[in-house]
Design a protein that fits this description.
Layout lengths: L1 E4 L7 H16 L4 E4 L6 H10 L1 E4 L9 E4 L6 H9 L3 E4 L3 H15 L3 E5 L5 H9 L4 E3 L2 H5 L4 E8 L5 H11 L3 E6 L5 H15 L3 E5 L5 H11 L3 E5 L15 E6 L5 H16 L10 H9 L7
Parallel strand pairs: 1-12, 2-3, 2-4, 4-5, 6-7, 6-8, 8-9, 10-11, 10-12
The structure holds iron/sulfur cluster.
Length: 303
């Protein structure tokens, strides 16, 4: 069995930056330290940070002032102001590309455009724009466009992790909704490349494994993209791989979301290689010791 890892799988620039800023805060030793919502969308990384002393909070209402790290997905300026007023030291880990989307949204609004965000309403990145511009419209699907009233000017931006083809299709429909439509393609280059590489890999394998948090929008998007061309499973960690998925598979592709650390990707690769080399004999169930052994197994040949 051959295991192939998609190019560029794992941490993107914005996530690397957020994680290294959080590490830096921990090194300085000042406490307490908080993040407003999870710093990135990966439960294992967040757990590790919590063990080291970074507490995830939903708001700053009932916490003692200290250092607050603004997560990679961004928060509204009003929340930053509130943190400042309450005496918190602010470490801004908002990805610069997310910040650019927030700035474009504000500029479009100022120039008289009705702002339309193509993205997921519940995603923190979109939520941060909505807190900034309460009357912005969020478009998740073709159906939501039908409900939009016709206006004079529309300014379109996208959540940075949207799928390019989906964005283009929705933009085509939005053109009929206003006399003037200004479109900014704000999908992050890192997302586009990751999606492209994963799709290419998925086309040439029997099975795709997508690794990343279930709460990670970009990981879910990768799963959707790969599912269109290959059997695909989204997992958060190596122990979730089921041996039955691998039966009679020659080539397995692995990709990972932008907030998946390399350590978790390596565990997945090790487990796949282990299962390929040591299939469970018939009638024997997978045991915890087998899972442990796979974690210790070293990859002999780089995929
Ligand atoms: S995917 Fe792009 S926009 Fe999102 S955090 Fe990473 S670099 Fe920033």
């Amino acid at each position: 069995m051959e295991v192939l890892l998609s190019k560029g799988a794992g941490f993107c620039f914005g996530v690397k930056r957020a994680v290294s800023l959080a590490d830096e805060v921990l090194r300085r030793g000042k406490r307490p330290v908080y993040t407003l919502g999870p710093l990135i969308h990966n439960p294992q990384v967040i757990r590790e940070f919590e063990e080291k002393g970074i507490k995830v909070v939903g708001n700053l209402d009932k916490v003692h002032p200290g250092t607050v790290i603004l997560r990679s997905h961004g928060v509204a300026p009003s929340i930053q102001m509130e943190a400042k007023d309450k005496g918190f030291e602010i470490v801004d880990a908002t990805c610069p590309r997310v910040k650019r989307v927030q700035q474009l949204a504000a500029r479009l609004k100022k120039e008289g455009y009705q702002v339309v965000v193509i993205g997921e309403r519940g995603h923190p990145e979109v939520a941060s724009i909505l807190e900034l511009l309460r009357d912005a419209d969020v478009i998740e699907s073709f159906e939501t466009i039908a409900r939009l009233p016709k206006v004079k000017r529309i300014g379109v931006i996208a959540q940075t992790t949207q799928h390019m083809e989906h964005f283009k299709e929705l933009c085509k429909l939005l053109i009929s909704k206003a006399e003037e439509v200004r479109i900014y393609n704000t999908i992050c280059e890192a997302s586009i490349t990751r999606q492209k590489n994963s799709l290419e890999l998925a086309k040439g394998v029997d099975l795709m494994i997508v690794v990343g948090g279930y709460n990670s929008a970009n990981t879910r998007r990768l799963t959707e993209i790969c599912k269109a061309v290959a059997e695909t499973h989204h997992i958060e960690e190596a122990a979730q791989i089921k041996e039955k998925w691998l039966k009679e598979r020659e080539r397995i592709g692995v990709t990972a979301g932008a907030s998946t650390p390399i350590s978790i990707i390596n565990e997945v690769l090790r487990r796949l290689h282990f299962l390929a080399a040591h299939p469970t004999p018939k009638n024997q169930k997978n045991s915890p010791s087998r899972l442990r052994n796979s974690a210790l197994y070293r990859i002999r040949s780089s995929p």
